[in-house]
Structure formats: structure tokens, C-alpha cells
Hints:
Blueprint (H helix, E strand, L loop, with lengths): L1 H21 L7 E5 L6 H17 L3 E5 L6 H8 L7 E6 H10 L10 E17 L7 H9 L4 E4 L5 H12 L5 H4 L1 E4 L3 H9 L5 E5 H9 L3 E6 L25 E9 L4 H14 L3 H8 L4 E5 L1 H22 L6
Helix pairs in contact: 2-9, 2-10, 4-12, 6-12
Pfam families: TctC (PF03401)
Keywords: Signal
Family: Belongs to the UPF0065 (bug) family.
Amino acid sequence: MTRIRTGVLAAALAGLTATAAWAEYPERAINMVIPYGAGGATDISARSIAEPLGNAVGQPLVMANITGAGGATGSVAVQNAQPDGYTMLFARVGSHSVNPAMKATLPYTLDDFRFVNVYEINPFACAVAAGSDIQSMDDLIAKANGDGVAFSSSGVGSGLHLGAVMVLDAFGVEDAANTATHIPQQGGGAAATAVLNGTADFLCTNSSSVASFIANGQMRPLLVTTPDPIEGFDAPSAADLGKPELERLVGWTGIAGPADLPDDVAAKWGEWMAEATSDENFRTVMESRGSIIELMGPEEANAFIQTQYETFRALVDELGMRIEG
């Protein structure tokens, strides 16, 4: 009888051990939602960090572009996912600072997500096609006040939407939100394409998404929203042009899960991102695009995102861009 009991106990312990090992996170691939289209700042950032992050995680990362509604569609997909760490979001300034600030009927709030980090900050750059007759910000503003201009963005309520209006307003264009023609696209890559093919006159977007077009001579930068010029961008800074208020216009990328993401899962992401963001190749690629790689932990990230939201909400109210419907 003792042998039987011992055998049963051993089997039970073995089963518990197997269950614990099976439940170790992560035990399978992780779905990573990119809420914007290919070629935009979020997509570039996500795919640049995918390899070092995947190495740190030790499981495949399944990258999926779920686009629409200025980043809201992909965000909602993560908001409604199981909070088990197997569906995570590349959160962005547009989806989680500008969108909540602009849209009264947005189907989520910042409280619907748990931000495990912010790892990238990048300035904005305003740019035109290389063949454009707009050579400077003076030319752009003269055209805006004359025949009118059209700008592209990654969607209504996106960072690119607010950014262009904010820049035009800073340079004295009256009722900038309605004076310029807004041409929304499905993502930052499509917004850049609209400028390249002449559908739009200009865009104001994150430096990372136009760096390659500027480097190969397809685009001309007019302005960067930094105190100092950016290497590779032959354009004056906001400070150079006497518009230091535009330095508030910056992008950021972080990773978030559903609100109820467990503490132990969030802690894992802290470890993985510390390793991934120290990868020299990743840093070189992103810094060459004007990005600053700076890893913020959960508390710092949440405080930063809240401040960004409040900043953009004040700007939205000032510019009359709140979307109530």
C-alpha cells in the first residue's frame, strides 16, 4: 500500500511540475500588433526591433499590421485580447496621445491598456517632394495663404494630422485646421507616398519615416522640431525658425498590453526590452533616422504618455480640432 501511495504522489508531483513548466511565459509565439500600415514610423520601429526582441523573448514574434482609424482599429484588437501577454501592441503617439485627445467617441482610453515601456522618441520633420517648387517654410506658408496647400497624414486624428495643423498655425496660417486640405491615408508610409506622387503638397511626420526618402533625394525637408538640426536632414530646426513651441511635437513608440496584464508578464517585457534596445545594430538603424532610443520603465512611461496626452489635448482645444462625432 505504501508503494502505491508513493507512486501516486510521485505521479502527482510530476504532473504539477509538468504543468508549471508548460505554463512558463512565454511558451509559444507572441502576436505583436502594429496599428499602422507598412513604411510608417511605427512599422519601421517595430520591424527594426523585431530581431533583437525576438532573440530576447526566445519565441517567435508574429508581426501584424492591423490598420484603420488612425491606429484605433489595431489598438482595439489588443484592448479586447486576453490579458495573457500573447497579444501585445506597438503603441504610438498617434494611437495613444493624439487620438484620445482628438476623438470624443474613441472606443478606448489610456486606462484600457497597460504600458510596459516607451523605448523610442523621435522628432517630427516637415517635407515635400524633391521636385516641388516649395523650397522653404516661407514658400509653404505663402502658398498656404495663397492658392492653398494639401497635406497627407496617417489618418484622421493621427499625430501627422495634428502635426501639420500645429505647424501651419505656428507660422500664422489662420484657421489652419480648415484652411489646408487634409488628405488622410492608411498609415505613414502611404502618407509619404501621397507626397511623392503629388497627391499632397507636404506632410509633417516622424523623422524616422522620411529619413530614407531624404537620404536618396526623393524628398526635401523644410523643418525639424528639435532645438538643433538633425544629422542627415538639411533643414532648419524649430528654434532656428523662431518657433520653439514646435519642440513639443515629438513622436514616441512603446509596448502595451490589455489593462489586466499580470505583473510577472510586464516584468518579463522590462527584461526583454533592456536587452533588445541595447542591440548596436538596432540603435544604429534608428538613430540614423533621427530617433532617440531611451527605455522608460512602466511608471516613467505612463507618466510620459499622460503628459503627452495632456499636451496634445490642450493643442486640440486651442486649434478647434476636437472631433465630437
